[in-house]
Specification:
- By secondary structure, this protein is of the alpha+beta class.
- The chain folds into 3 domains: 68 residues; 79 residues, Elongation Factor Tu (Ef-tu), domain 3 (Beta Barrel), CATH 2.40.30; 78 residues, no CATH class.
- The chain is built from 5 helices and 11 strands; from the N terminus they run H-H-E-E-E-E-E-E-E-E-H-H-H-E-E-E.
- The N and C termini lie far apart (112 Å).
Length: 288
């Protein structure tokens, strides 16, 4: 605006000077016309600048009115986890509303998302009890419950997993968002079960000392390899196995029928195995 007014004042002075010189016959009529046209253009520029100022003032009044009516409120009364904007930053909403804050409505009720392997997901169902641990509290277990088993599969390094959502009661506010947990789902619970260590099912007694003796060459050469241990089946697939105990100081085999296992202990559902029976899981050679 000031620039346009200054330009108009300059052209007006030039026009007045041209008129005086034209009256004294010192400049031509063409020079006078040129000076008058320049002054007219300067006047038009001043009016255009004034119109732009008025339009800008009107836009400012509208923005001030909208600002007085606008209010940004949180949709919930919770805890701010992350702030995405800074004071004074311009926020523009187009097709997608911008995220200003990340809020947690109630930290006393949280969810734990775990990945369950495809081989085990068939045994996981909503409502099962779960215990999990976090690195922040080593040795402490937190209870939870399966609330949802999702159908979308994820493949990471060739391993297919399914996301499972656990509901967690965080009344003591010990757990924080973003923590990594390791969960154990209770898929089956047995009462008054007879258990044997899995090592006992894999145990095979070595050959007796008398059988190991032979010719000098036979003692130097290695004996035939032991047959591989039979794998232990998970779940309810019962198979016949054998365990070993000591009778008269010698290993004696006992045929058993196994049931469920947790990876460390296996249920015995049939066979002459009673609680308190000593079972062999390994042998040590005594040095003479």
């Amino acid at each position: 605006m000031l620039e346009a007014e200054s330009n108009e004042d300059e052209t007006r002075r030039k026009l007045k000077r041209a008129q005086e010189l034209f009256a004294q016959k010192f400049v031509s009529e063409e020079a006078l016309v040129t000076a008058d046209a320049a002054h007219q253009r300067a006047l038009a520029a001043v009016e255009s600048a004034r119109s732009q100022v008025d339009q800008t003032k009107a836009t400012l009044d509208v923005d001030r009115t909208n600002l007085s009516k606008a209010a940004i409120r949180s949709p919930i009364n919770g805890t701010v986890l992350a702030r995405k904007v800074e004071p004074g930053q311009t926020v523009a909403a187009s097709f997608q509303a911008p995220v200003l804050f990340t809020l947690a409505e109630d930290l006393t009720k949280m969810e734990l998302h775990v990945d369950v392997d495809e081989a085990d997901v068939g045994q996981v169902n909503a409502g099962q009890r779960v215990t999990f641990t976090v690195d922040a509290y080593p040795g402490q277990e937190f209870p939870s419950k399966v609330s949802e088993v999702r159908n979308a599969a994820k493949t990471v390094s060739g391993v297919v997993t399914y996301e499972t959502v656990l509901s967690v009661d965080n009344a003591k506010l010990l757990l924080r968002p973003g923590m990594t947990g390791t969960a154990s789902v209770t898929v089956n619970q047995l009462a008054d079960a007879v258990l044997v260590p899995n090592a006992a099912l894999r145990f095979t007694p070595p050959a007796s000392e008398s059988n190991s003796k032979g010719t000098f060459v036979s003692r130097l050469l290695p004996g035939p390899p032991r047959p591989p241990a039979k794998p232990i089946q998970k779940g309810g697939d019962r198979r016949h196995q054998q365990v070993w105990t000591l009778r008269d100081g010698k290993p004696a085999a006992i045929l058993v029928t196994i049931g469920a296992t947790d990876g460390r202990m296996t249920q015995v559902v049939g066979g002459e195995v009673q609680p308190g029976l000593e079972i062999l899981i390994d042998t040590l050679r005594a040095e003479k």
